Amino acid sequence: VSAPEDYIFRGGGTTPVVLVHDTWTMDLDDKFLGIKGGQGNSSHSHLDAGSFVYDYNGTRWAADLGLQSYGTLEPHIDLWNMNDGSERWTAFRYNNLNHNTISVNGSYYRVAGAGEITGLVNDSGRKGATVDISAPLSNEVASAVRTIYIDGDDLVVTDNITARSDKTADVRWTMVTQAQPTIEYGAITLVREGKYMYLTKTSSTGHNPTWTTWSTVSENSWDASNTGYYECGYTITLQAGETATITVRLTPEDPMGA
Fold first, then answer.
1. Neighbour tally for 74: CB within 10 Å
2. Exposed/middle/buried for 208, CB within 10 Å: 0-12, 13-18, 19+?
3. Average pLDDT of the residues of the chain
4. pLDDT of 159-199, one tens digit each?
5. Residue 111: enclosing H or E segment and its boundaries?
6. What's residue 149's pLDDT?
7. How far is it, in rounded angstroms, from Cα 96 to Cα 18?
8. Cys staple from 231: which of 86, 153, 160, 214, with CB 3.0 to 4.6 Å?
9. Are the CB atoms for 61 and 177 separated by under 8 Å?
């Protein structure tokens, strides 16, 4: 099959997606980025608007936990109630806390709130998209917009978040990975099969989030094992009405220059 001329595909519909290839060489220099919108009450959906996956150097660094067999969940929870507050969203792999997106105040996304792909990034060698996840998070923040793109050897994720005027916003930025994460030297070092990547952060609004890791072991006996997966990212608290713009880079460049 001949390689296409385009490096970005945008799919609309109920669950909009953007897929990016950095090249069509299909070797270790090729990078792949997938970005997802959508809403929780569409067919078979998870609460994962704004989530992404990313491959570089023959390795998937930003991963997705995937599907858990319905038959293992149906005896234990009301799986097919797609409404807000349903037991469905307590399933570890189904809620936003355990996808590559942001969560606020420990709450689940509004199921009728749709993550919208609002534009593509395709200039100066950068390739990706902007996704507005304000609607899924509208109970907790005034707005939340993220731009995700490949920039040279780096993956860049910039989140612009404004807290509601009537409440603070405890923000959790999560990335699921099969690489072992270690917080060190102001960054997160990721190691998988002898390969290294690093998460670094900056803020144009002067904020300094706290790097954090989370367990992938569920408290629910009916949840599938997530052995071999890790979760890492940052947390930050925004005061009522406060806006923060925070950028995370996933880069092969060691921030300590080693």
1. 12
2. exposed
3. 96
4. 999 999 999 999 999 999 999 999 999 999 999 999 999 99
5. none
6. 98
7. 19
8. 214
9. yes
